[in-house]
Amino acid sequence: MQPVFRLVLEGLAMFAGSWAAGCVPLYVRMDQAKFSLLALFGAGLLVGAALGVIMPEGVETLTRALQARGGDWVDSANTIISWALVGGFCTMFLVDNALPSGHHHHHHAHGRDETPDNDSAACLDEIPMSPRTTAAVGGAPMTGSEFTLGNHHQPQGAARHPHRRASFDSAISPSADHLHSQWPSDQRPPHQGACRRVLGKLGSALSPRHMPTTLLGILVHSCADGLALGAAVAGSAAQSGDQTSSLEIIVFLALLLHKAPAAFGLVTTLKQQGHPGYRLGVWLTIFAASAPLAALLTFAGFSAAAASPAPAAAHGEAHVQPWAGIVMIYSAGTFLYVAMAHTLAEAVAHAKSLRARAAAGLAAAKPAVARLGIIDMAVLLLGVVLPPLVSKDHDD
């Protein structure tokens, strides 16, 4: 199968998985511990894929190509490898920190009756992998092992102040109600009112005024994941052609297991901030589509760069293979940043938080010292060692 078709299918699978995981907070009760283990396993897969699969295959491909050219090219292998790896890491660092992604905090004084800002959650590292166990609307505590988000349809202050609640409900879709009221009931075309309401709600969800910084930050992170996937698939395609390589399979699996907890945590956070359900559906769709689209654009860019200028036929293999190795090493750098700076740190921190709350109890004033459990460490290490094992078996 052509690499672009494989990438499209992988993108569709990633979209479906992210969207389904994001729907869980809206409709299903789920134990937090299960999603914590899934997050740990996905983080381990990203680390294992970068260290045990992408980097070794990139170094091997680049070394073979430089040896075929001979001369001074072999002496420059270490320099090329180091700069490609550092370049991938620095690219992800700049994408994550240079772009506006909402790394700010809003602090409210204790005892004040304030409605929480919809943008009060921080961006990438503060989106929980599973629901927070904060107080529900009206002050009723949530349980530590389950969640239900039916009480979070309006901000916390709205339940105590009816006039705030009325203004909140009336502000959910003002454009839709306004457009609907412009047509007299006897002159409105069939289904036009429903269509206008849908378009009004869609425009409200896509309005920059209603877009939370939480979503903007995680979209940058999601596009960076797509960049890493597109670079890895482009390098694998240049090396293996139309054959599916173990590198491509492991990278896809690692990102798929990484995106599901991220979508779950994103929708959970936005739901707890009081956003209406129709906006959550639109934002979840945008998040689920961001990584596949970024992967396709990255793959197209690397493929176009490899196609020009066209070398002579005798030197075709020597031209393509160094490019393939450099791209794979570059993608290893991107995966290292994604895994170390966000995925692994977030998953470990959340697992420790769950164990601390379970040990100390929700009513304890001072939480116990947090540490990973035996099962948590085993699942994480299984994710780390699985990519090299699968790659070896697949290649044999």
Automatic annotation (TrEMBL):
Pfam families: Zip
Keyword flag 4Fe-4S: no
Region (Disordered): 103-167, 175-194
Record keywords: Golgi apparatus, Membrane, Transmembrane, Transmembrane helix
GO cellular component terms attached to this protein's record: Golgi membrane
Membrane topology term: Multi-pass membrane protein
Biological process, per Gene Ontology: zinc ion transport
GO molecular function list: metal ion transmembrane transporter activity
Ranges annotated as biased composition (Polar residues): 145-154
Keyword Cytoplasm: no
Ranges that cross the membrane: 12-28, 35-56, 76-95, 215-237, 249-270, 282-307, 327-348, 369-390
Protein name stated in the entry: Zinc/iron permease
Organism, scientific name: Coemansia javaensis
